[in-house]
Structure formats: C-alpha cells, structure tokens
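BUG: 3D viewer hangs when loading the predicted structure for this chain

Environment: internal workstation, default settings.
Expected: structure renders.
Actual: progress bar stalls at 90%.

Input used:
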Amino acid sequence: MLTGTTGRLSTHCRSCPLPNLVIPQPGQVRFRAVRIAKPKPATWFRQNLLAASKPSWAQQNRLEDVSRDCEHAEKEAERRDWQDNINQLEKFYVREMVDLFETSKMVAFFHSNPTKKQNIRTAWQNGRRFGMELKEYHYRVGKAGLKGTPWENCLHFWFKFPGEMNMQQILFSPTLAPDKLLKYERKVPEFILLGCVVENRILSKKQVQELVKLPNLEQSRGELVSILNFHQQQTLSYLQSNQQQLSTNLSQLVKDGSKES
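Structure tokens produced before the viewer hung:
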C-alpha cells in the first residue's frame, strides 16, 4: 500500500517483494549532488564505448589534389580487366563451348527474359528429348572462345548487359533437323529464336522455316544425279547424231553412184 504524504511503500505489506523506496513527488529532485560544471567521469566500460562509437570524418583534400586521388580510373581499369579476362573455371566453359561448336551441325541462339531455374530445367529436358543440348554461357566466355574463329559473328546474339546473371541460351544439335528446332521453340514459350548457324552460315528464323520445306539430302542427291544423267545422255545424242547423219549421207551417195553407172 502507498501512504498518503511521504510517498513511501508500506512496511507492513509483506506480500510486496520490493524494499522501502521513495517515490519522487512533483517539484522534488532525485539527484541533489549533480555538478554541471564538473560532472562525474563515466565508468571505464562507458568510456571505451564512447571512444569506439565516436564519429570520424575523412580529411578533406584540397581541390588541387582531387585529380591525384581520384579512384574512378582504377575502377575503370578493374572493370576492363574483368571484362577481357576469365578465371580458371570459365576456361573450362570456353573449352566446352568450342567443342560443342565444332561438333554440332546446328547451333541456335535464343532470347529469353529472366526465367526461373525450374523453367530452364524444363527447357533443358525438352532439348534432350529432341536429341539436343541446351547450354548457357556468359558474354565473357563467348568472347574468349569465339574471337578469331569462324563463329565470331555469333557474338552479336549475346547478352552484353553487366552482371553475372545475364546468360545466353544456346541450343546445340549434332544433326541437321530444322523441323525439330521449330518444334522445340513452340515447346518452350520462354525462348525466342534469334538465329541459327547451319553449315557455317547464320540463318534467321524465316530462313530456318524455308529450310524445312527443302528436300532432304538423299532426295537432293537423287535429283542431282538425274539432272546430270539427262545432260550426259543429251550430249551423247548430239555427238552421235552427226555420225549417223554422215553415214546416212555417204550411203546415199553410194546408192546414187551405183544408179548412174
């Protein structure tokens, strides 16, 4: 219980665990021995805390020294070094990519917006079902592997935006199957066909569609053989026609001479 005037806790309240405390009343000062001009020093722990949390400002340089201490040139040199050079892991990616370019009959480049890893996994599985291999490489890897090769113009299809997550989706096919490539694009709605390398030539999507309408290699060979045989037979007939005409004329002269005699 609280008393009326002194503000002390009652001593006969045995159930209260607090000791006898004085509650400040209006107008009372709790600490009477506070000296504002000469305060008491803080404890050792608080002094260390104040020293560690003390704010600090960098020393301001003169305007003449700003160009000497500029870090922009160093950052630009570091950025160019990062764009032109590759690390040890990316060297394996370069070797893998070049091997796929050399062994593939058809290499397709796709545009894709940021896609979930689950959808990329589904696209890879669909490529395996068509007998193709889906890979993704950074522009730094493509530039390190294709510079100075017959596929250097393919670098125009790569994402050149900064960042590690901007990867180029490439589909490698060991066989020439443009119809399967178009079916794969319809199967994966996240990908848009940009171009395709066929027989060291870059074809657009419309040219790939026209390539599907062309006959296969066996039919083209049969048509070529028939055309060559036709011209061969026609040439032989022209060559033999003169001989036949000459023999006919000679036989007619012999007949005319025998009649006159």
